Amino acid sequence: MTELLEPRAIGRGFTRRDGPAKVTGTAPYAYEHPAEAPLYCYPIQAAIARGRCVRISAVEAESLDGVRELITPFTAERLADTDDAELAVLQDCEIPFRGRVIGLVLAETSETARHAAELVDVQYETDPFDTRLRADDPDLYQPDKVNPSFPTDTSEGDFDTAFSGAAVAVDQTYRTSMYHNNPLEPHTTTALWEDGMLTLWDSTQSVHSVRSTVAKVFGLPAERVRVICPYLGGGFGSKGMPHANVVLAALAARTVPGRPVKLALTRQQMFSLAGYRTPTIQRVRLGADPDGRLDSIGMDVVEQTSRIKEFAEQTAAPARMMYAARNRSTSHRLARLDVPVPSWMRAPGECPGMFGPEVAMDELAEALGVDPVDLRVRNEPERDPESGRPFSSRHLVECLRTGAERFGWDQRDPRPGVRRDGPWLVGSGVAASVYPAKRMPGSSAVVRYEKGRYAVEIGAADLGTGAWTILPQIAADALDVPADSVDVRIGDTAFPKATVAGGSTGTASWGSAVVAAARAFRDKYGADPGDGDEAQAETPENPDEKDYATYGFGAQFAEVRVDADTGEVRVSRLHGTFAVGRIVNPVTARSQLLGGMTMGLSMALHENSVLDPRFGHVVNHDLAEYHIATNADVEDLRADWLDETDPHLNPMGSKGIGEIGIVGTAAAVANAVHHATGVRVRDLPITLDKLLPGLPGVRR
């Protein structure tokens, strides 16, 4: 059992320390780093889906004033390590997907670089290609594992026999779209080679991961690479691992030692070079007895990956542990397609993986004539169905019941399509949320006393989650000092190593290291340290992690209005109630939960990267056509939480909250749309064409 901190600063709603710098525009982002006489580079991308470039003509481009260099596969430096094919840019002429970088222009201004890139003439040889995801693809294969290291398939009991004999069953296929992360700050890098040292100002969720990766790619000792990222304009997973832009910027800067080089991907380029969430096809089967108790749960998922690098999202993972059933079966199959490399997006696995099962639960509730909240309560497991371990804490039932009370669920008429308000059909829906509560080993922190103040140094990244603010709160309680006497320094490989800001593990991982360093400091120097005294410690082991299943839980309630004539969908209310351990800072916590719920709303109503299979690229590759949710899409957005104490996690008693907010939201909205209209949409997003054929049509 972990020794919990006595909360004094923890639990208080401190305003964001980085807020003033961001709103006044003085926070330096990677591309904005002050650099003397920088050069600018612009990628040239392949215009075919598969093949090779055989000739690159740049006479006209190179004649422009200000063009410094054109780098192509014929002239580029050979990288020391090309095992990661996504990062092995400009190393050969092969084109594995449309948008692959096949050249780089380096110029005195960004406008010149972009114009020159447009003047470059490329000749190709084309090969047959396939970019269409199909459940019946004959070349589907079973990956060795799914992200990060879960078994691909699982089986317990006799699913087939149990499902075939179920009194009430649901067997449906659900689809989620291809989604692109689209942080407001694009993927940017400023690179400088000087005296054999590479410095990168990079927009990343992990400065240390970028350093280790780039050092390997270029065959450098890690100490010759420094990565700096004090501020980050969003990432949502897309900046959790290095992509091609980092290597491209470093390659370009290598040609002009001593001069900084800036590279910023355009919004359009991000759709092929910065990762995305794979589309999924989910067959979900639920079998229950007449009282609604599940006896069989099955989920079979088909996803896509790139031919050059495999990424398998763990979409079926939450179905393995969410509800009690003696017989269960899950599987993942991948299609290798001529598409860009998929990657992490907020709540990988749980976000798409809870859509199908939570809609299926709604369908099962309707078939049984059981309230959807009650159905979930009836299938609450006593232990983790997958591992058999007890939950360190599991308050899903309380989230469902408390959320239902706050939402006014008891006033709901269970019949679909019967409630109207003028032209609007009104309905409500519910879905559950879950996300693992983990921490990663490998972070280290330093606590130092400097001129009457405490300084905490750790190479963490604040991608908007509040690390600038909550790490001083954690350190203050561990040191037993006021929070305003603690400074924090983050976002630089000059500071001790920190794990990635991802998987909702940042606060738990870094905070544990900070607490360990603070306790070591107090043990060594007491309450009256001298100037320059310091102590360093790593994230300690937690033996409870082996004995308990650790998750955060939540319940999402949505009320929607659907225009009976046009099919227009408006979400009038979206409420979430969560059990996510001790809340370190309610201001930043609520922001994270609401942000996740907004992304889930966006997933439900709008987001869909439309890939044209004839040409192999996403056609709505900007924010004009890749629609995301705005304030007009929801009238009442609310996130609440239960007071939850869990002594088996970390000294703060906290669980990750950055991702759980998106989980279940889309299912809650889809279930509400069905309740409003009687139309069941199983293929996201919920668009007019899917609703209109089943609507009443004429206003009464």
TrEMBL record:
Compositional bias of kind Acidic residues: 530-542
Domain of life assignment: Bacteria
SMART domains the record matches: Ald_Xan_dh_C (SM01008)
Residue ranges, annotated region (Disordered): 133-155, 526-545
GO function term, MF aspect, one: oxidoreductase activity
Listed Pfam families: Ald_Xan_dh_C, MoCoBD_1, MoCoBD_2
Name listed for the protein in its UniProt record: Xanthine dehydrogenase family protein molybdopterin-binding subunit
Organism: Amycolatopsis echigonensis
Phylogenetic classification of the source organism: Bacteria, Bacillati, Actinomycetota, Actinomycetes, Pseudonocardiales
